[in-house]
Amino acid sequence: MNIKVPLHAVAHGRAGDKGNHSNISVIPYLPITYKYLLSQLTEEYLLDLFRYKGATRVKRYELPNFPALNFVLENVLGGGVNGSLNVDTHGKTLSFFLLGKVVLMVPKQCIPEGSPYLKSIGAFD
Amino acid sequence: MKKVFIGCGAGFAGDRFDAAFPVVETLKNCDGPRYLIYEVLAERTLAISQMVRRNNPAFGYSPYLDQYLEPIIDKVKANKIKIVTNMGAANTLEAARRVHAIAIEKGVFDLKVAIVDGDDLLSKYSLNFFHKQPIIEGLGIQGEEIVAANVYLGALPIVKALDLGVDIVLVGRTTDVALTLGPLMYEFQWAWDDWNKIAQGTLAGHLLECGGQVTGAYFSDPGFKDVPNLAKLGFPIAEICETGEVVITKPKNTGGLVNKATIIEQALYEIHNPKKYLTADVTLDITEVNIEEVGKNRMKISGAKGLPPPPTLKATISLNGGWLGEAEITYAGPNALARAEQAASIVSLRCKILGIKERVRVDIHGMNGVYDDDFGSQRQKVLWPKDGEYRVRAAVRSEFRYVAQSVSDEILSLYCSGPAAGGGVRQLITEQIRTASILIDRKRAMSNVQVLNI
């Protein structure tokens, strides 16, 4: 049976900037989670999440060997270091925006041992 | 089998000045050629250095050169650790002179320093030339004054410098990975079309170039990804075999950690297409990379694939970017949110009354401060605590300094014209540099290398 959890419960990531574009990696804590990321973390889903910040296109790259996904969010940085009025001109905080906003349906086994989320399963249903 | 050891002393200009000490202590006991790299040159850092040099021809190298090199220069020389760094910035010659002066102060009288130049395109080409090149990143540059133009050189000039038997190589703009790849090409004499080995060397450089970002820094998420002792973070050391196999580790008795997760986060940092990471020396494919634990805080990395690099090199064009004006004020305690929201709307209205045409962003930190857009569209979407601490911030960019100042001053004036008990105003007006990236034919980028003996 699958449960509803924030992405933060099952994956981690890092954001990097290039001009007005951001790349955010999404790395599952456990390899079994990768297939759920593949099916649920779609380009459309991320574009919808980031459209309010100006994102015009999202490209997803797959790295099954790591495993990990790498998302490139175009024009999401409000001008980036060149032009952004945001205090975080690089968009370095966006990785945790993604980890907090995305909700996934995954089996409980996707949550790593010792995770604080194991104590609050059900709270997100 | 021959092994080369490359440690990182700094991954950006603000890195800890003492981070290299344990790296040097480890390198000196390594059995093989050892190197220490410092990567301290962001796009804007170099443009600022160019402007500094124009005002004073004795400067324009990294302002942190003394702080990084003075404490270690005698130790690295005594232990045959070579340094490769972009602290030369916009003035490699003066950087070399300064390095010599520091060495003499520390009793080192036989230091050989090489400098690599040729990345500065502004001194070689006309404005017209830059305007004709395709822009791959950033806004147009037509008709604007260019303050700096630097091409990303590859590893070859660093190899040429090492061929001259120097202790230190000072470069300006090269690819960050070239600081690592250069020593590897020199030590192993890999062919320049041995793409998979160059790919492995490039990946090693990519993992090293941000310093502690591969050894647990910028990674810690307490309770989820715990990292020990970041106050004593150990910076990375790469051990590279002639076959191209890389082990990433860190000095003993330091904080931080090296595991598969820290490697993957840094491997993908600032990468777009992981099959086609373009550098000056190779097109890197990391999709088939294997990461294997071979000891505590020791990760073996293999399987990077390489293809020839593009026929063009990337260059950064820096232009005048006007002014950024910012200011902040805090509201705390009972009903703080309402007072912060009132302050924010006062500032927005005041900017309208003053006739400011530029976009003014007013955000409330503690409430979507970084996640909101410029228009505050997300402000009401979450139920925020009414009491607490909120910091109201205004920001504007303008070609005019007075506009930046005026918006910033509207936060200051909240002290006596805003809601109750605002405190802790900070104002910041900063001159900005705007950058654009262009591609140039690699034949246009001629590097030159020279040695300076004391």
Q: What characteristics describe this protein?
A:
heterodimer, A: 125 residues, alpha+beta, five-stranded antiparallel beta sheet, two-stranded antiparallel ribbon, 4 helices, 7 strands, elongated, B: 454 residues, Alpha-Beta Plaits, 2 domains, ten-stranded mixed beta sheet, six-stranded antiparallel beta sheet, 28% helix, 28% strand
Task: Describe the structure in your own words.
The complex is a heterodimer of chains A (125) and B (454). Helix content of chain A is 22%, strand content 30%. By secondary structure, chain A is of the alpha+beta class. In chain A, the strands form two sheets. In chain A, strands 2, 3, 4, 5 and 6 form a five-stranded antiparallel beta sheet that branches. In chain A, strands 1-7 form a two-stranded antiparallel sheet. In chain A, a hairpin with a 4-residue loop joins strand 5 and strand 6. The longest helix of chain A is centred in the middle third of the chain and has 8 residues. The model of chain A has no long low-confidence stretch (mean pLDDT 95). By secondary structure, chain B is α+β, with helices and mostly antiparallel strands. Chain B folds into two domains: 274 residues, no CATH class; 116 residues, Alpha-Beta Plaits. Helix content of chain B is 28%, strand content 28%. Chain B has a ten-stranded mixed beta sheet, with helices on both faces. In chain B, 52% of the residues are buried. Chains A and B meet through strand 3, strand 4, strand 5, strand 6 and helix 3 of A and helix 10, strand 16, strand 17 and strand 18 of B.
Uncertain residue segments of chain B: none
N→C terminal distance of chain B = 35 Å
Helix content of chain A: 10-25%
Which strand-content bin applies to the residues of chain B? 25-35%
Structural class of chain A: alpha+beta
Shape of chain B: globular
**Largest protein interface, residues of each chain:** A-B, 37 and 51 residues
- Structure summary, number of beta strands of chain B: 19
- In percent terms, what proportion of residues of chain A is strand? 25-35%
Q: In sequence order, what are the helices and strands of chain A, one letter per element? A: EEEEHHEEHHE
Number of helices of chain B: 13
Count of alpha/pi helices of chain A = 4
Number of strands of chain A: 7
The quaternary structure here is: heterodimer
